[in-house]
Sequence to fold (150 residues):
Amino acid sequence: MSDQKRVMRVLKKEDLNAIVEIDAAGSKQNRRDYYERKLEGILNPTHNINSSLVCEIDGKIAGFVMGDVYFGEFGIPESTATIDTIGVDPRFQNRGVASELLDQFMMNMKAAGVKKVYTLVNWDDFALEKFFSRQRFSPSKRINLEYTVS
Fold:
């Protein structure tokens, strides 16, 4: 497997179908509408910067990470970023794809002057929490607040 050619690149419109398929394999649901809206925002030329990435192995999309860069939003004066979606094709899992995507994302964020990157994980998603912990993420000092609309 190590002789396979891996390429990290910025996400493009043509990646939609592969992303939807990868997400459906993990979430067991088709979220095409969500990803169409997400890509429309990411690829909008007025959007800050396209920080989302895909990993290709031998020309096939093996995984993706989607995030945003914020320059002073939420009253936070420093530049921050978020990772809101990460996915790896089941055929390429446990081969370092997600780790490589995060490494590239972090290098890009450092180059953009970002000091902190945030993500949210459900409190009972132990596998995802363990993955992010291995990637040197730790609990934030910020509190995620929630309001249930009834």
